[in-house]
Design goal:
27% helix, 143 residues, alpha+beta, Nuclear Transport Factor 2, Chain: A
Length: 143
C-alpha cells in the first residue's frame, strides 16, 4: 500500500515532460515549439500532419499562403537557431491562441534574418489532435 501511495505521489508531481514530443505535449506552447523544431529538422511529415487542411499563414512581408504554399515556403528555407519569448496562451473555447516573440536565424523569403517577429497562432483541437489553423508573422520594427 505504501509503495502505491509513493508511486502515485511521484507520478502526480511529474508535471510537463522534459522533452516534449507530438505524443506527450501538454499545451499549445509546446505544440508551437514542436512545429518550429519540425520545420528546422525538415520533418515534413509532422509539419504537414499538424497543419489544418484549411490552414492560412501570413509571412512578415505580407504574403499569404494556404497549407500547400506554407509547406513549400518552409521547405525552401534554412531555419537556424530560434527562440520563443514572452509566450502567452489564450484559451478560446476548444481552441488556443498563442502569441510570442520569435527570434530566428533563417534564410527564407518573407523573413529577414536575423530577425525578431511577433507571432500569433491559432491551434484547434480536432478530434483530440491539435492542429495549427492559422499563423501570422509580423516583423518587429526597431525604433
Amino acid at each position: 500500500m505504501l509503495i502505491v501511495m509513493v508511486f502515485s505521489l511521484i507520478a502526480g508531481c511529474a508535471g510537463e515532460p522534459k522533452h516534449p514530443t507530438w505524443k506527450n505535449a501538454t499545451g499549445a506552447e509546446q505544440n508551437e515549439r514542436l512545429m518550429w523544431q519540425s520545420i528546422q529538422k525538415k520533418d515534413w511529415l509532422n509539419v504537414q500532419s499538424h497543419l489544418s487542411p484549411m490552414f492560412i499563414g501570413v509571412m512578415a512581408d505580407g504574403q499569404m499562403f494556404d497549407r500547400a504554399g506554407w509547406l513549400q515556403q518552409w521547405q525552401s528555407a534554412q531555419l537556424g537557431e530560434f527562440s520563443l519569448g514572452e509566450v502567452e496562451v489564450h484559451p478560446e473555447g476548444a481552441d488556443m491562441k498563442v502569441t510570442y516573440i520569435f527570434h530566428v536565424q533563417a534564410s527564407t523569403p518573407g523573413l529577414p534574418s536575423p530577425g525578431g517577429f511577433r507571432v500569433l497562432s491559432l491551434w484547434q483541437d480536432v478530434k483530440g489532435r491539435w492542429m495549427l489553423s492559422a499563423t501570422s508573422v509580423t516583423a518587429i520594427q526597431s525604433r
